[in-house]
Amino acid sequence: MEKLYTKNKSKNTLVKAKPETIQFLLSYSKSLNITEAEGLQFESNLN
Amino acid sequence: MVVQVEDSQLVKQYIQGDERAIEALINRHNSRLTGFIYSKVGDRELTEDIFQDTFMKVIRTLKRGAYNEEGKFLPWVMRIAHNLVIDHFRKHNRMPMYNSKESYNIFSLLGDDRLNAEKQLIKEQIDSDLLRMIKELPEDQQEVLEMRIYKDMSFKEISDNTGVSINTALGRMRYALINLRKLVEANSIVLTN
Questions:
Q1: Global ipTM
Q2: Bridge partners (DSSP) listed for residue A32
Q3: Do A15 and B38 touch (CB under 8 A)?
């Protein structure tokens, strides 16, 4: 059978968060400090 | 052999202070979570923001020791992302509906790849001109050209089918193209759409 010469380009692109976003999250994680005092939790960012 | 550490194990390591564990978790679920958010909001920048907020929430919850869904890390993260998407639409007082008002036009999203009527006519004209010229070629060249271009056969297959060597088939194809070019020039035909 003869082939149909249509171009089927995939319109799907791999969606991923940018490396900058990941880097920000890793820095955020490293800087976040939770302290507990008398049953209360305090968040602090050690930047 | 690569042994993949379970999410629950990575969560445990992270809670115990291993920062590399959160990196592994983020990278592992990056694509899936981003795809999930993007499917809801349809905007690349907004997806990035919600992804970031989701993991900030994840990090805070884990560091506080408030996470208690061991073994179900991804569904939990997805739920956080889903709630953030809902929050976003609530805040902006709209749901992700597609309408065709003002700057947004649904037809910019739903493309139609077909040619318009004029281009279709031109294409038909070109096709018929081309066919007419192909019929003017010597039979052996016609045969190779049809097999190669219209039937997408390899030169090996053409050679097997016609009983000539690959080199002969290649030569016939070459002459077919040269002759076609001559015919195009001789007939002053424009073959562009």
A1: 0.71
A2: A45
A3: yes
